[in-house]
Amino acid sequence: MRAIPDDILEYQKRLDAEARPICDLLLATIERELSDAERKVWHAHPVWFFDGNPVVGYDRLKASVRLLFWSGQSFREPGLKPEGTFKAAEARYTAPEQVDVEALRHWLAEARAVQWNYRDIRRNRGLVPLRGLES
Question: Are 125 and 85 in contact, with CB atoms under 8 Å apart?
Fold first, then answer.
């Protein structure tokens, strides 16, 4: 397994005792399932990318940890809630036991296959899917 980038390790170190076990589980699972993705801290939290396009990330909110899939509203696997005005969807956790690792693995497989074009959203207003969706 390749080394986790220093900026993500620093993010993990700064987490509080409640969020750290959840984020450690998310990090380990995402790293295993998306081992070929680019990843870095982007807009203050860990995000994984394919071809410069964000696909999944997580962050500490006041009352929970949010797992965000940029194209999650187009996924077939249930369990995510719409977030924002485009195609993103999320799950929120307050304990590591709430993370359904099997569902997470399915969402990560879909994140690889189904991608709306967030990388060029200013230019195309997000109307062009990158992969996994018909225009």
Answer: no
pTM: 0.87
The encoded tokens of residue 98 equal 């709430």
CA distance 67 to 27: 11
pLDDT digits (tens, 9 = 90+) for 46-70: 999 998 889 999 999 999 999 999 9
Comparing CA positions, the residue from 3, 82, 11 lying closest to residue 45 is: 11
CATH of domain 6-131: 3.90.1150.200
Beta strand 45-50 with 65-69 is: unpaired
- 116 touches 126 (CB < 8 A): yes
C-alpha 33/C-alpha 37 separation (Å) is 9
Dist. CA 94–CA 66, nearest whole Å: 9
C-alpha separations of 19 from 16, 57, 94 in Å: 6, 14, 7
